[in-house]
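quick one
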Amino acid sequence: MNIRLIGSASDLGVSVDGSRYAPELLLSDIEDIPSEIMFPEPGIIKSHSADDMRKNEAPLNRFHSRLYSALVSSRSEGDFTILAGGDHSCAIPSVLSSEKVYGNIGVMWIDAHTDFNTFRTTETGNIHGLPLACAAGYECEELRTFHDGKTVDPANVCIIGARSIDREERENLRDAGVTVFSTDDLRTKGIREVVEEAFSVCLNGTGSVHVSFDLDVIDPYLVPGVSVPAPDGISTEEAFDVIAAVTDRIDDVCSFDLVELNPLRDPDHISKDIASEILAKIIAAAQSK
Ligand SMILES: [Mn+2]
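structure w/ manganese (II) ion:
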């Protein structure tokens, strides 16, 4: 299958700067695959204010609208399209464009955080904490005005590797009916079992699965180059096992995101190298589709 890479060079979704530089690093290494990096409009003055509970909402929406169009085009042309972030808010246009093109998808969200806050519950105003709720149609209407299709059914949403969940966010997840596998679940049940169960949940009544991989699912001691590190994560080897379990089922996967690499916190390129390795594994698997 033809692969296409799109970079989301934006960190407007988080007050920590740096993840906007990731696509250039990640995509410059990859030859023979068409790629394009998209940037927010020039001249934005980014809000970092702790009091701002809707940080950068308007410019982010304008950027996501363009990203959504590019993703819809690429996916409509039949290319397996991989989105490289950027902060995780770029998954809003990514998931919704997949839903638009493929119709009736599930979502597998591999992440230390569950990204299921809304403007009602967010404690930081960082929009990268809201994308899964938005894509699953749980409040956050104002973040998907560019999308004219349906949202993903929360019953087909599965989170893997979660260990940092806000109190009210946990209520949102329960209320919506999202399935959450914690880091402990991965350890007690085993990685293969959890990923297989996740595929069952995501594919129950749907046709394919969008996989969104946040690098911070890996322990920050091993992958320090992320914007919001969460201690007690899985090892790099365990993350590769998760990826292997995903690539073994590549025929069920329609699209993929790799997000939250922060080059400003990765002076030795350790995190970047791991991110590149994950990307290479997904590309190789998708090419065989
Ligand atoms: Mn995330």
